[in-house]
């Protein structure tokens, strides 16, 4: 298939693009390469797929030197005209929309970035799919949409009406917007609620990266909620496997869907939402201990209260994903941490 993957300079988008390329799909990647975090890491990911930094020029297509079936374009989601032109010129079979302004804490101080990228950017993707029909639009949602929910494990059949950060609200909005377009224009859409993704080439603002860097440098780490938080850490290869299985399975719409008892996870329209997680929550202190063991060095811990916008626990119910696609997370936490540490030491030469 010819697939547009947005966010290919990002963590998950990079890994997904590689998997799709290696199975023979034609992948067109786009990314704004913004400065939310160190862009050298983003350029490093692109270089790993044969997209050389010196050849990148905004709006111009770059051919990968590694994969004959891969091209990349630096493009902002808010650039509606350029995005529409890209769709008209390429006639994509599928779109996997992973580009977004990420981060819960950053949304507390830079709210407009989330409206520009996650709301305006997403409506531009939806409109492009409307006017240039595709077989399937998959898009990144987030476990953060569960907000104040405390019923565990989190299920897509639960209502998610109480977000605690603008980032979470923007992802909930994406799901609502997608349903509108599935209902009005019969665009098959699937939302993917990712649960705390980690692994090689990960984001520098996430716990594993922050902790590894600080421990190696002998600096204290900030441990929120005194380390009692629990997270459903999910290895990036397991995430990519789940996403690919979903891309290959456009929703058809449920004939049994009942408006008197509406199921939030599906619809009469070709619309679906899935959790993608490990379904095995890990206490933050235990996660830190696993990092310490891998590094052979004890962390200096700065114990802090729960931060605004954070939740105490996440736990994914992935029964629907397993039943529909055969997805099963396969990477134990210690193995995933080992793979990340090996990558980190190699990339940063430490």
What's the gist of this structure?
The protein is of the alpha/beta class.
Outline? globular
* Spatial extent as radius of gyration: 20 Å
Name the structural class.
alpha/beta
The H/E string reads EHEHEEHEHHEHEEHEEEHEEHEHH
On the 0 to 100 scale, the average pLDDT is 95
The oligomerization state is single chain
Low-pLDDT runs of 5+ residues are: none
Spatial separation of the terminal alpha carbons: 40 Å
Number of helices: 11
| Beta-strand percent range | 15-25%
Structure, explained:
The protein is α/β, with parallel strands linked by helices and 350 residues long. 39% of the residues lie in helices and 17% in strands. The chain contains 11 helices and 14 strands. The chain has an 8-stranded mixed beta sheet, sandwiched between helices. A two-stranded parallel ribbon has the order 8-11. A hairpin with a 6-residue loop joins strand 3 and strand 4. Helix 7 packs across helix 9. The longest helix is centred in the middle third of the chain and has 21 residues.
């Amino acid at each position: 298939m010819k697939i547009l993957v947005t966010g290919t300079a990002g963590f998950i988008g990079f890994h997904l693009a590689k998997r799709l390329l290696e199975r023979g799909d034609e992948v067109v990647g786009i990314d704004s390469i913004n400065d939310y975090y160190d862009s050298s890491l983003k350029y490093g990911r692109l270089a790993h797929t044969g997209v050389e930094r010196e050849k990148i020029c905004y709006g111009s297509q770059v051919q990968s030197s590694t994969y004959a079936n891969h091209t990349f374009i630096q493009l902002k989601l808010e650039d509606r005209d350029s995005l529409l032109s890209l769709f008209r010129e390429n006639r994509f079979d599928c779109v996997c929309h992973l580009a977004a302004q990420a981060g819960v804490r950053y949304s507390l101080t830079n709210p407009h970035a989330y409206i520009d990228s996650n709301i305006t950017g997403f409506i531009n993707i939806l409109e492009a799919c409307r006017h240039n029909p595709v077989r399937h639009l998959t898009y990144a949602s987030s476990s953060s949409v569960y907000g104040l929910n405390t019923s565990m494990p989190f299920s897509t059949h639960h209502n998610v009406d109480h977000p605690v950060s603008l980032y979470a609200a923007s992802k909930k909005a994406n799901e609502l917007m997608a349903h509108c377009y599935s209902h009005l224009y019969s665009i098959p859409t699937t939302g993917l609620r990712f649960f705390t993704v980690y692994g090689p080439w990960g984001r520098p603002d996430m716990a594993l990266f922050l902790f590894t860097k600080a421990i190696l440098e002998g600096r204290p780490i900030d441990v929120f909620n005194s380390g009692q938080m629990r997270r459903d850490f999910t290895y990036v290869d397991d995430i990519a496997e789940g996403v690919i299985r979903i891309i290959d399975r456009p929703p058809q719409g449920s004939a049994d869907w009942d408006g008197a008892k509406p199921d939030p996870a599906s619809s009469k329209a070709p619309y679906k939402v899935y959790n993608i997680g490990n379904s095995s929550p890990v206490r933050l202190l235990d996660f830190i201990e696993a990092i310490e063991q891998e590094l052979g060095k004890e962390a200096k811990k700065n114990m802090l209260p729960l931060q605004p916008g954070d939740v105490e626990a996440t736990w994914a119910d992935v029964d629907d994903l397993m039943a529909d696609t055969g997805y099963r997370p396969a990477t134990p936490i210690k193995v995933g941490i080992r793979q990340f540490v090996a990558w980190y030491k190699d990339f940063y030469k430490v």
